[in-house]
Specification:
Layout: E1 2-13, E2 16-28, E3 33-37, H1 44-51, E4 59-64, E5 67-68, H2 74-84, E6 85-88, H3 100-110, H4 115-128, H5 144-156, E7 162-166, H6 174-190, E8 194-199, H7 202-205, E9 210-215, E10 218-219
């Protein structure tokens, strides 16, 4: 599903490259649940953003479902992202002015899904996540755990093949965090969603089918 070959990312400071990622080689198969584990500043989020096509690598080749992402135009990358990838953020990134229902519906509007179809899909995921009673509330009226549930529902509404999660439990208490991780495990096992999460928590990393250790922008072992 994903093949990264000699991926590096750097910024030039005073004429010298400052590496954030250095020579990353990584293959992820469909149906895996991969945890990228490492301390703050190790390059985890940058790697996830490159995989999620939110950021470009400075060097190297990236193949996603056999498509050469590194040589695609921005519009083509955007279409791949919209069709196949859902993103869950640590800070939720919900739109405060929209209700829970409207937040979850937003990706479907971008994909030009018909109104009747959107209603059915949103109703289905609200029911599945047991947040029907919250559909008319705004994000500020929800707890952190509820906001993250809405964020995950929004990421999954268009049925992506790949779910990317950036420190998904970072702003949650331990009980809420465990519930979110159990949900990820269920999505991976039952729905066959491929998941890549970045985390600095060894406990959360262990939910994955395998762990990749990242340190100073390099893969230690996997």
């Amino acid at each position: 599903m994903i093949d990264l070959k000699h991926i590096s990312k750097w910024f030039t400071i005073s004429g010298k490259p400052n590496f954030i990622l250095k020579d990353i080689n990584l293959t992820i198969r469909e149906g895996e649940f991969v945890s990228i584990l490492g301390p703050s500043g190790s390059g985890k989020s940058t790697l996830l953003n490159v995989i999620g096509m939110l950021d470009d690598a400075s060097e190297g080749e990236y193949y996603f479902l056999d498509q050469p992402v590194h040589s695609l135009k921005e519009k083509q990358r955007s279409q791949l992202y919209k069709q196949y990838i859902g993103f869950v953020f640590q800070a939720y990134h919900l739109i405060d002015e929209l209700t829970v229902y409207e937040n979850i519906e937003t990706p479907l509007i971008y994909q030009n899904v018909k109104s009747s179809e959107r209603q059915a899909m949103v109703a289905d995921i609200l029911d599945r996540f047991q947040i029907v009673g919250k559909k008319d509330l705004f994000p500020t009226q929800l707890s952190g755990g509820q906001q993250q549930l809405v964020g995950i529902a929004r990421a999954l509404i268009a049925k992506p093949k790949l779910l990317l999660a950036d420190e998904p439990t970072g702003n949650l208490n331990s009980k809420q965090g465990e519930e979110i991780m159990e949900l990820f495990r269920q999505l991976n096992k039952e729905d066959k969603v491929t998941i890549i999460q970045v985390t600095h928590s060894e406990k959360n990393a262990e939910y994955g089918t395998h762990i990749i250790n990242l340190l100073d922008g390099r893969i230690e072992n996997s």
